Fold this protein.
Amino acid sequence: AQSVTQPDIHITVSEGASLELRCNYSYGATPYLFWYVQSPGQGLQLLLKYFSGDTLVQGIKGFEAEFKRSQSSFNLRKPSVHWSDAAEYFCAVGFNSGYSTLTFGKGTMLLVSP
Amino acid sequence: GAGVSQSPSNKVTEKGKDVELRCDPISGHTALYWYRQSLGQGLEFLIYFQGNSAPDKSGLPSDRFSAERTGGSVSTLTIQRTQQEDSAVYLCASSGTTTDTQYFGPGTRLTVL
């Protein structure tokens, strides 16, 4: 069965430091890949997505992610974290079976320290 | 235009009561999805509508859950005889095509006492 793994439940990063959130998936073909962010009490906001083409994708708020087929990974990165980035981040995968209901990872809670 | 809207934003109900949750997708979006977000379970797919096709109900956890989509737009998720384990945030999303990006609403927080 298809699955998505975010191995880090919580991550604490100092403001201004770089960030990498990990995401791995299990699937036999190339899926559609997404990162969403959820602030407390808010819905999910799309940060970026990968469907095909360039494996390094740029998103909003200075985030980027790189699709690595050999590692079945789609890690999210940001070179310098701001306090407002504190939120929960979800990796999601759409498996191309004719439609793309999303399978989500369990999420990674990002805490930003001063 | 407006994003996906959901109502109510919060719903508190007693065990055994029925509840209806509403979703208004982005205008023109043909695909609509319901997900449930609960502690310990993360985000789970519930049901999916695409145009006039029969919905994919494969994620519904029990026959107490049902959903309909009227006129290809507004959707209602109904939970009958609510149980405490139904307490969660119910998220609705819509997309323009079957492989396009899903845009999420703010969710309905359901609390079953």
Observations:
- Chain A is about 0% helix and 50% strand.
- The first strand of chain A starts at residue 3 and ends at 5.
